[in-house]
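Example protein as discussed:

>
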Amino acid sequence: MAELSSRDRMIRSAVELISRNGVDATSFSDVIKHSGAPRGSIYHHFPGGKTELMVEAVRAAGAIITRRISSAAATGSTADVIEAVGDIWRLNLTRSDFAIGCPVIAGGLARASEPEVAEVSSEVMLGWQKLIESQLETAGYPAAQAKSMANLTITSVEGAVAVCQTTRSIEPLEQVIASLQGLSRSEAWSR
C-alpha cells in the first residue's frame, strides 16, 4: 500500500483529533505534531486555513460511513446496514478506550466558531440519512416510514456513541443496534 501524502496524513490526523477533542480544541500545531507532516506544508495544502482542513476532515470521515452504508445497502437488508454502521462504532470505541466520538457530530457542534464546518457536517449527516432512507424504500417501506426509520437510525446510533463514551461501555450501542434491527424486521415498520 502506498504511503499517504502529507496532505492525507494531516486530514487523517485532523479526523482523529476532532473525534477526540472537538474542532475548537484542535489546532494546526496539533495536526502537524500528530501527522508528522512538515510544518510549511499545512498552508500549502490548506490555504483556506483551519476551516479548510476541518471541512476536509469532516468530509473524509463522513465518506467512510457513506461507503459502509452504500456497500451494505447494495448487498444486504436494512438490518445489515444497521450492523455495518454499528461495526464501525464498536471498533472505534473499543480501540480508542472510548475516547473517539463522531467527527461529523464534532463538526456540527462547532457552528458558533466554524459555521462552514458545521454546514458540511449537516450535509454529511443528511446524506447518511438519505442513503438509509433509499435503502428502506427499495426494500418496500413507504416513503414516510422510510424517512422516519432513517432518522431514527442515525440519531439513535449517534446518541448511543455519546452514551458509550460517557459510560465507557459498548452496551448502549449494542442495545440500540439490536432494537433498530428488530424494528427494521417488524411488520409495523413496513406497512
Q: What stands out?
A: The chain is about 75% helix and 0% strand. Residues 26 and 106 are 11 Å apart (CA to CA). The mean pLDDT is 93. The first helix runs from residue 6 to 21.
